[in-house]
Structures are given as structure tokens and as C-alpha cells.
Amino acid sequence: MTRKKQKLAELPEVSVSDDGEVRHLHLGTPWIQGSMRVDQPFDLELEYVQRMMAWLLFADPAQVSKGHAMQLGLGAGALTKFCHKKLRVCTTAIELNPQVLAVCRQWFKLPPDGPKLRVVLADAAQEIRNPMWRGTVDALAVDLYDHEAAAPVLDSPTFYADCRALLTDTGCMTVNLFGRASSFDRSLKSMAEAFGDDALWAFKPTREGNIVVLAQRTPSRPKRAELAARAEVIQARWGLPTTKWLRAFKPVSA
Question: Residue 4 is inside which H or E element, if any?
């Protein structure tokens, strides 16, 4: 067996469960790795996933559809579908597990690849070093957890430096951090090493314990009034609860 085939053989089994109107994706455990409201398949169901869109606070709404959004880790396809269908932005997802892609297409309404949507089956750590992606990404979402959802799979200063290299000058990375406080502090330190201490913003934890951190390729500190005005535009145009985000979102340092 080749190394690649061995790696694929070791991936967890993907399963689906329904809880009323909400469908969940699992990777070999009861942990929820993604969700979708069945009658609203292109909306963002989970609070932390909505917060992964915080990069919109730093983007010109008139230019969003001309950009490029990339997700590392497909999950249930929520961010990929939202970026493609709602924002109408060119969207790329990088996913290691072929089963996840198949399940997303069959059970989570993920559209087929097309001119503005592509899913690349690859190891994210290797794929993001492909020179073709460098400097092309306006919004990078990182949500890479193993099947136990204990800590990020990729979380080193080197990995975050590779992520930073993907971004355009005005680009942002959002990362889902979930787990112990010590793990969060270590992750924040790794991001600060790659992006700089003045480039980081973070939300307060969700009820489930997810903390979304945002890192800017070029640090900025827009005034609260500017962020509030942008939040109102985003909420009106795309239906995200952005006006309440500002009570839980602020600059942070490692």
C-alpha cells in the first residue's frame, strides 16, 4: 500500500444524523463537525461558523464578489456554500477526506465544481505551499480538527506563515479554536509569530467553547463607528448577525 493510500485508509468514517430540521456531519464520533438547516441549506447554522465570516468587517462590500475565498477543511460545506451562493465569490475548499466531499455533495447540497467553485482533495499543509495560491486569497477560513475535535491539526507558526503568504494585501484569515485555554494561548502565540501581534482580533467564546480568531495580512485598527456601519451593511445584505458581533469582537495580543 502506498503512503497516500495508507493515509486515506486511516481517515475516520463519515456519518450523517438528523435532529429535527437540522442535519449534522460526524467523523467517526458523536462530535458535530458541521451542520445544515435542511430547508435553508445555504445559510450558516452554527454561531461560530457565522463568526468565521468576520473578515467581511474589513472588506469593501462592493468588491466582495470580485475576491477569492478559501476554506481549509470542508466540514459540512457551510462556509463554502455561503461564499459561493450568497456572496457569489470565487471559492476554493481544500479537503483531505474524499468521503467528506462525497457526503457534502449527497447530503449537504454542496454544488458541483464550476467556474467559481472548486474543491481540491489534498493535504492542506502541502497544498497551501503550491505557488499558484500565493497572494491570491482575500478570505481564508481555517477549521482543521481531527475526529476527536480536541485541538487543531495544523497550528504551528510555520503553518500560519504559509497561510499569511496566501493572502492578498487586504486579506484576512479566520481560525476556529476549540479546546482548553492553554491550547488557545499556544495557538494565539503561533499566529502572532506569523502575522504580528498587532494583526489579531478575537471573539469571546461561543456557548459551545469555540473561539474565532481573525488575523489581518496588513494590520489595521478601524474605528468602532466604521465597523458598526460596515456591520449594518453586512447584516442587511447577507443576513449575518453582524451588529451584535461588535460586543464580542476586539483586538487581542498573544
Answer: helix 3-9
| Vertex 131 angle, CA 127 and 135, to 5° | 100
The angle subtended at Cα 105 by Cα 101 and Cα 111, nearest 5°, is 110
- Residue 234's CB is within 10 A of a number of other CB atoms, namely 22
Secondary structure (DSSP) of 104-153: HHHHS-PPPPBTTEEEEES-HHHHTTSGGGTT-EEEEEE--B-TT-SSBS
Yes or no: say if 81 and 111 are a contact pair by the CB < 8 Å rule: yes
- SS3 assignment for 7-71: HHHCCCCEEEEEECCEEEEEECCCCCCEEEECCECCCCCCHHHHHCCHHHHHCCHHHHHHCEEEE
pLDDT value, residue 1: 42
Instruction: Give 142's strand partners.
Output: 72, 175
Packing angle of the helix pair 157-166, 181-195 (nearest 10 deg): 50
Distance CA 96, CA 118 (A): 14
Q: Which H/E stretch holds residue 237?
A: helix 224-238
136: which 3 cell numbers? 491570491
CB distance 9 to 1 below 8 Å: yes
Residue with cell 492542506: 124
Contact between 167 and 160 (Cβ < 8 Å): no
pLDDT of residue 44: 95
Decide the pairing of beta strands 200-203 and 210-216.
Answer: antiparallel
Answering whether pTM is above 0.85, one says: yes
pLDDT profile of the chain (254 residues), mean per 10: 51 87 86 88 94 97 96 95 98 95 95 97 95 98 68 82 98 87 84 97 92 97 94 97 95 90
